Amino acid sequence: MSFRARHLLGIDHLKPDEITELLDLAQDYAALNRRTVKHSDALAGMTLINMFFENSTRTQASFELAGKRLGADVMNMAVSQSSVKKGETLIDTALTLNAMQPDLLVVRHPQSGAVNLLAEKVNCAVINAGDGRHEHPTQALLDALTIRRAKGRLHRLTIAICGDIAHSRVARSNLILLGKMENRIRLIGPATLMPAGVGDMGVELFEDMREGLKGVDVVMMLRLQKERMDGGFIPSEREYFHRFGLDAEKLALAAPDAIVMHPGPMNRGVEIDGTLADDINRSVIQDQVEMGVAVRMAALDLLARNLRASRGRTAVGEP
């Protein structure tokens, strides 16, 4: 097994063969999830805690479902009702969780780096479910699996990531992953929504969406992260849709078989036309949701294997 990571905190530390191994396993779990009986015992006897400091629907639900389908005992920690709201520090929380002896911990947090800090303080495998503007590794992995299934490969494609790049942890993780897999990446959006130093990341930049979409194989739209904006980044939502929202007229400039993606939740009529989002001939947005469960099952499975191997070495006195 080439996947040797103890935690899944980001994409940057993963090698291309590790990404491929995880996606191959996720492909098997995608097939399992379409069967009448969707159960595996890969995590039998293990405990998974989902700890979300930010609201989430898709990610939290898919991790819960993934854990249960793999046979784990799953606990969703309601942070809004926990001691964290009473002033408990993140370190205190880590120590409390550690005393519960979990095997796997899934964390979403509004501060970049918070999940890495937790991972240093607990004796279990940790998965980053999104931290601030930093990373969202399982989203990038499920996007990669969706692309591979739709296009038949995950290399040497031209992929446009469009919209609010500056505030998007999804964009950052996808930039890293898709770059590792030798794809040509275009970033499209207003200058106000481009991160500093993005020109040094080996990507092509476009402020004209029509120009940027010409001939692309994949169009990945991003949500406007209004909760992370503290100023006037766009003149108005109506003007934003006119210039940077995806509609049939703009999509016509992409390759004839180009697919449309969006990590959700969507602002219909702002980032993407609702009719296009629902077009089963072009949109793979629902496939992304389906692949999210499969990818998270694969990530939990591989980390659990490494955790068991580590505990086995410790038991016989190996470092």
TrEMBL record:
Keywords assigned: Pyrimidine biosynthesis, Transferase
Record domain Aspartate/ornithine carbamoyltransferase carbamoyl-P binding: where: 6-148
GO cellular component: cytosol
Keyword Phosphoprotein: no
InterPro entries for this protein: Asp/Orn_carbamoyltranf_P-bd, Asp/Orn_carbamoylTrfase, Asp/Orn_carbamoylTrfase_sf, Asp_carbamoyltransf, Asp_carbamoyltransf_Asp/Orn-bd
EC number: 2.1.3.2
Catalytic activity: carbamoyl phosphate + L-aspartate = N-carbamoyl-L-aspartate + phosphate + H(+)
Gene Ontology MF: a single term: aspartate carbamoyltransferase activity
Pathway membership, UniProt: Pyrimidine metabolism; UMP biosynthesis via de novo pathway; (S)-dihydroorotate from bicarbonate: step 2/3
Sequence positions that bind carbamoyl phosphate: R58, T59, R108, H136, Q139, G264, P265
Signal sequence extent: none
GO BP terms in the entry: 'de novo' pyrimidine nucleobase biosynthetic process; 'de novo' UMP biosynthetic process; amino acid metabolic process
Record: residues binding L-aspartate: K86, R169, R223
Chain ranges of the Aspartate/ornithine carbamoyltransferase Asp/Orn-binding domain: 157-302
Quaternary structure and partners: Heterododecamer (2C3:3R2) of six catalytic PyrB chains organized as two trimers (C3), and six regulatory PyrI chains organized as three dimers (R2).
Record-stated family: Belongs to the aspartate/ornithine carbamoyltransferase superfamily. ATCase family.
Job of this protein: Reversibly catalyzes the transfer of the carbamoyl group from carbamoyl phosphate (CP) to the N(epsilon) atom of ornithine (ORN) to produce L-citrulline.
Listed name of the protein: Aspartate carbamoyltransferase
Organism expressing this protein natively: Paracoccus gahaiensis
Top-level taxonomy: Bacteria, Pseudomonadati, Pseudomonadota, Alphaproteobacteria, Rhodobacterales
